[in-house]
## 1
Amino acid sequence: MDTMRDRLAPVLSGLLDEDPRVAVVLAEIGADGFADALRRHPDRVINVGIREQLLVGAGAGLALTGMRPVLHTFASFLVERPFEQVKLDLGHQGVGAVLVSAAASFDWPAGGHTHMAPGDVALLDTLDGWTVHVPGHPDEAETLLRHAVAAGDDKVYVRLSVQSNAEARPVDGAHLTTVREGRRGVVVAVGPMLDAVLDATRGLDTAVLYAATVRPFDAAALRRAVRAAGADVVLVEPYLAGTSTAAVGEALHDVPHRVLGLGVGRRELRRYGTVDEHVAAHGLDAGSLRERITGFLGGAAGV
């Protein structure tokens, strides 16, 4: 199966042909995939080199002229390194862009900590007005990329990963979907965490909701699930643990509830290892998730 990132250049190249507003801004990473698009649209495929602050600044400048810029590089270089430009050039100036990242939390362990970004979504949470998509399958990534580019002039972050669920789910860029109904607790699986969550909760009487879009957070869907399954909520996210606990708290502000946020820990793992080894070390494999979920829900989960 191809990866989410494999869909990026073909989808954006097609959109460049279809929509004269679309522009793609790169910082060397991924440039080879746009060679044909560059020949067709030399004024709308721009490679700024390894200058990530300029990447965001140039995108903002294009947006100020009425273009719909799509900016792409690794998450650590797209959100963390040029955060001041994301905050000011886009946010303060009131213009939008589509930021499409790769490498996720630890997709390239050999790159070391400089190429890991488990805090990217939490960092964007300090800013106002961002839509955040976290697809769990290449088909979902393609759908959400198209949705993001078509989203007027909004600020949108699309977080791509080599981690993927076995099958795509219907996604609309806004809503949580119910994958499994239950009466004793709610587990919200984000993006590529769904398969592990389904394995971890097999045989348990828990509801499983799927989120491929986490900002804005679908409070109404969570409230419906809580009414049916009880007010114990477990979040399983492929980035910094607890990133969306505040969103759950806001959704359930008038409902007594407990919430457990599972995800990537804050401790830096300094051995390179593999993606699967990082997943296990952070307790995000199915066996570890089952232990942590049942430990939180206790006897309420049922079997």
Note: Residues 5-159 form a domain with the Rossmann fold fold (CATH 3.40.50.970).
## 2
Amino acid sequence: MAGTRYEFRVEGRLSEEGRSAFPGMRISEEPPQTIIDGDVVDDAQLHGILAQLQALGVMVVSARPVPG
């Protein structure tokens, strides 16, 4: 089920544990930030991703839908 593509920018680098928390999403580094992007099917999943980032203690710089 496709959704809206989102880009999440977080401060610093994600640990292996952090990376494994987002299966199916692309993770890349653009120092000093890490970019996580992928399809988000609904608001519940969006809020779940943000909650997971908070639980990992990661500072979210931005979260935005990607046009296209």
Note: The chain has a mean pLDDT of 95.
